[in-house]
Design goal:
218 residues, 6 helices, 11 strands, elongated, three-stranded antiparallel beta sheet
Length: 218
């Protein structure tokens, strides 16, 4: 994933970049609420003359790239809690809904895992927009109030944090999508057969008597 720093100007209308210094203590996750918008579109929206909202965010990520729109040590208006800790002490990350959303989530999990590790934080530092203002956001993680998508996202981030520093860990990517992690032993890479088969659209069965894995392509 490409990472770009493209800051909006300090004189952007509606006080979207107030320039107030911030020492972040959390990272807040959002969905853009726009199923057709890309990271570039969302960055452009912040400086669009027709935009009259006092709203901004630090980073927006899609299936191809992440764009840092405001410095991570400056306040952004993304949490809906006025002068509360959401706006004043949290890095706001917008996850786009367009294109390959699974790939976008994959990119977001990688990005967030890296950011947490760089700061010496754990997933307990992650927040939803909902946690600050009660807004149903990130909306695609809501699942009728169960928040199963949110739980899964945090688990993915934690998984990547645990494996990121291990030189013996390899990534399994099938058709551009990260499927699972494997391990390297004595120069040989091993992946779970079930993960690979599922990614290729095949069925898999385990014969415990003969200790045989049987993969059948469709």
């Amino acid at each position: 994933m490409n990472y770009i720093a493209d800051y909006i100007p300090r004189n952007t209308p509606c006080n979207r970049r107030p320039g107030n210094a911030m020492t972040p203590t959390t990272i807040t996750i959002h969905n853009t609420g726009n199923p057709t918008s890309t990271a570039k579109n969302e960055r452009a929206w912040l400086t669009n003359p027709s935009n009259s909202r006092t709203a901004s965010y630090h980073i927006v990520v899609d299936e191809r790239e992440a764009i840092e729109c405001l410095p991570l040590n400056e306040v952004a208006w993304h949490a809906g809690d006025g002068n509360g800790d959401g706006n004043r002490k949290s890095i706001g990350i917008e996850i786009c809904e367009s294109g390959d959303y699974a790939k976008t989530l994959d990119n977001a999990a990688d990005l967030v895992a890296k950011m947490l590790q760089e700061r010496g934080w754990g997933v307990d530092r992650l927040r939803r927009h909902y946690d600050w203002s009660g807004k149903i956001c990130p909306r695609l993680m809501y699942d009728n109030g169960k928040w199963t998508g949110w739980t899964k996202f945090k688990a993915e981030v934690e998984k990547r944090m645990k494996t990121a520093d291990k030189s013996d860990v390899a990534k399994l990517i099938v058709n551009g999508k990260r499927v699972d992690d494997g391990i390297i032993i004595d120069g040989v890479t091993y992946f779970p057969a079930r993960s690979f088969a599922a990614a290729m659209g095949a069925t898999i069965a385990w014969d415990n008597v003969s200790k045989t894995v049987k993969v059948t392509s469709k």
